[in-house]
Amino acid sequence: MAWFRSTTIRGVTARDDSVLELLPMVFAAPGEALARAEEVLGTDPSPLHASVAHQVIGIWQRDFGDTRRALAHLRRARDLAARAESAEREADVLATLGVALVHAGRTRAGLAAFERGVARGSGHTRARVLYRRAYVWWVLGRHGEALEDVRRAIPVLRQVEDVIWTARALTLRATVHLALGSVERADADFTAAEALWDTTGQEHDKADAVESRGLAAFRSGDVPAALRLLDEAAERYAKLGTPTFMLTIRRCEVLMAAGLATEALAEADGAVAALDGIGGQSTRKAELLLVAARAARLAGEPQTALARAAVAVRLFAGQRRTWYETHARLVLIEARVATGRGSGRLVADAAAVAERLAAFGAPAAPEASLLAGRIALDLGWTADAERHLAVAARSRHGGPPLARMTGWAAQALRARAAGSPRGVLEACRRGLDVLDDHRMTLGASELRARATAQGAELAALAQRASLVSGGPRRLLGWSERWRATVLSAPPTRPPADPVLQTAMTAFRELAARAEEARTDGGRPAPALEREQRRLEREIRSRTLHMRGEAPGDGDRFDVGRLLRRLGDEVRLVELAVLDGRVHVLLCGRGRVRRFEAGLLAEAEVEAEHVQAGLRRLAHPGAEARLPLVEAAGARLQRLLLGPAAAHLGSGPVVVVPPGRLHRVPWALLPALRDRVLSVSPSASSWLRARDTAPPPGGRQVLVRGPGLASGGAEVPGLSERYAGRRTPGDAPAGKEHRDPSGARERGEAVAAGGGESPHRERDGTGRRGSTRQGHAHVPGAAAVRGATVVLEGADARVPRVLRELDGAALAHIAAHGTFRADSPLFSSLRMADGPLIVHDFERLDRSPYRIILPCCDTARFASVGADELLGLVTALLPLGTAGVVACTAPVNDAAVVPLMLALHKGLDAGLSLAEALRDARAALPGDAVHQATGWAFSAFGAA
Question: What pTM value is reported for the model?
Fold first, then answer.
């Protein structure tokens, strides 16, 4: 932070100016200031000049290096100032020393140094000392004292026209206002400070101002702006070569609010290790440990949270930082509750923390009251619970979105304790409305998905209340209220950002080179992979900066409309999970019925067994496992459908599973095996897909990427099939597509060589060019056959592929697929020039109406947030795609070819994807490899 930095002292001679200039230089050009200060000490300087040089080195070490060295230099600077008989110089050094002592955890000694500094200084110098003591009060969490000292300092600094220190004081006051929840006052001070910084050359202070604006954006609830500003501040600090521990703390807070707790934990732990490595500030270490504890709790790691919070409490107590110690105790209690340690003692502890936080004016006070009330409710202490929850519920009427959601959660728990299901549902509705408004300010689909985790408790409370009071229809409505909400509106289109475009192109090229190196030599290329990861971080970071454009979803789910669209033949099976048990909501023939099935945990284990079985069946010679896989499918049916399996009728079935069951091969279940079957992330998503009209023109796009074991052998046959439908005036069809046995690109030829797994593998990325307007013949391996475009070899490059996919009626993309569990939106399909990633698809004006992805793992998702899915298929559905056929498991490459040819034969006959896939499975040979291949594919959507 830049708020405690020294500059020139009034009342010195002109010849001293060159040395005194080093003080403001520390945060304009830190490295240069340090070097020049060390040069001064090598020239046998006067005590006054030596004092300045030691102070400069002490400031640098205090903020960017070793605190112990900082204290040694600052004590030497103090002694030399006394020898120089300069009271003003001594006062200034004492203030710098006071800050260093407090950051070293020696609070009493630090405050004593400030007392001497205030007594020794006068006028302008005393105002600077008061400012720095105000900063220390802020570090200690004593906000009243901080505001009082800065109130005394600002008029004097303004009177002498000290622009730099006035701007610092305004920035500090704004930050204190933010800590107390006064966002408007903070914004006014930040604006005034920024205007002053624009008149100076203090680059570090300017970076600090950007960081502060990021903090203000976060406190006002604008997460994308906060991430953008903090990243900009990081870039500015990087140019100055200075560490950024305070920035890390703030960035971690924003990441947690965005649902990225695991990333926040990694960043905080990394910063703690770096701080320990340089012997850095004890105060910053304690703050980083507090952030890490909060992140660990949100990431579902209560033991890690306990460990981090306990050390933070101890450090804060030793530093006499009661404000921060109290916040750390709140996290400690939350972690203990998460480990199942609820007790009357914890109720009392949480209540005491809530009282202290309220006395401090801390915005976290309602969270502590909610915690106390929740623990009391679990113990059956209804009177105590009501008292604490009533206090927490007051926050529902104002403040940032997450604070209001805390209030509505408390109100819902109050209603539940009072036995009012209606009150529970109303509070949950209001709280989730707040979350919807917040979520739609986020432009990135990943942030929208992860933000839903904030509403998980409200949604669960509503589902339980609706089960008790409203029957199956109401339970269905609430199940839909929070299921796959990220699909309710298209993601914000990535901006026309040249830096982002350059990063995407460089990422694709590096990924292709890294893949080529692995294929050629069988060894990874560490340098390429490191640069690839750096570019991934840059792309993701800039994508997270996008602000949402769509308003809240006003098209609420209507059970009656769903039933009308299903009619008498189609059944929709929505699986809701309450308290770990699967509830089957069977919709059709004008009614919704509920059946209880098995435990979700048991179904997840069985689904993993099925996945392992399908993986083995992809290899010839594993036929003996077929009965075992079929038996596992029967067990899955009992766990997931229960008695509802006997009531499915004989017509088509739509399955809407929870996110944690996304890898179930539904066609393996006996009751679903021989019927028209489709899967949808939500009933709302199925309705939107059903209402999506195909684009005019009916263009088909067939893409064959490099390195497939079979060479994408179905593509030439499909090309011939669709070529027969060309319109009059088209060029005659010849052998314009490249024969799979002919010359191929180097990457294809190598990857298709011996030793390949029989599985269709995974990989990809790309970027969109302009929307295609015409379909004239393009020379090379791409062939336009009537309304069909074939892209293979050198033409299967990302920009060209995206141009052709935009607005197509049907796309068949035979390419290696890679699912990235660590970063789902970097899941990809490998093209000739590198990976085509999910971020690329989001640049399409309209993704293809139907998409067929015949390669392994293209239907894999990451389950995030409350019940959201991130992956290739879910990225396509909000962008205009009404139906996808994709694979949930590794499959035999050769066995896929007849399945795909049969699938397209059905589509050519006018069938839907689900109908064509059912018939294609039936047409396969009866051996284990082909049967397993058919079960591994699912039809998603309603096209």
Answer: 0.76
